[in-house]
Design brief:
two-stranded antiparallel ribbon; 2 helices; 10 strands
Length: 170
């Protein structure tokens, strides 16, 4: 997911006695675990998005999740460790992350970290440079237009993790 604009990484890494593993094989389970970790109930009148974690595979950045979703949070950490062990992010140059200052439960039931992005935008990352194998070599972090309906108004943009990005490899 985030996997945030890096697209499908086509590189492979050795994974123990089982042989090579596609680094893209981590994307779907990670996206599922992230979605579950960020789940909250907007009808509750208590702060739910209070646990700060690192989200993302190639270039993790700080974000808030719901600690009540402990199993999903543990899965995030497991998948990140396996991704790192497989050396899937080797050669990726990560840009700076905006540190979240707080979070809230959105009307859609998702923990949304709050950084200092202007209205109509949200913090995200996109690929600033694609490599020869369509893997992202350098990420760009910043505030990008949001896509609340799942689509982006500008041609050439795609909605990934709630933001419109142009830098997608592959």
């Amino acid at each position: 997911s985030q996997l945030w604009g890096c697209g499908g990484q086509s590189n492979e890494a050795n994974h123990g006695a089982g042989g090579a593993v596609s680094c893209a094989s981590f994307d779907a389970p990670y996206a599922t675990a992230e979605q579950a970790a960020r789940r909250c109930d907007p009808a509750l009148d208590v702060e739910q998005c209070t646990q700060r974690v690192s989200l993302g595979l190639a270039c993790p950045c700080g974000a808030f999740v719901n600690p009540a979703n402990a199993t999903a949070v543990a899965q995030l950490k497991e998948i990140q460790a396996e991704y790192s062990q497989a050396a899937c992010a080797a050669g990726v140059q990560c840009g700076p992350c905006m540190a979240p200052i707080s979070a809230h439960c959105s009307a859609q039931g998702r923990c949304e970290s709050v950084a200092s992005c202007p209205d109509g935008t949200a913090y995200g990352t996109q690929c600033a440079r694609c490599g020869p194998t369509d893997a992202c070599e350098q990420l760009e972090a910043g505030c990008f237009p949001t896509c609340p309906n799942g689509s982006c108004p500008q041609s050439g943009q795609v909605c990934i993790a709630g933001v419109c990005v142009t830098g997608v490899c592959g």
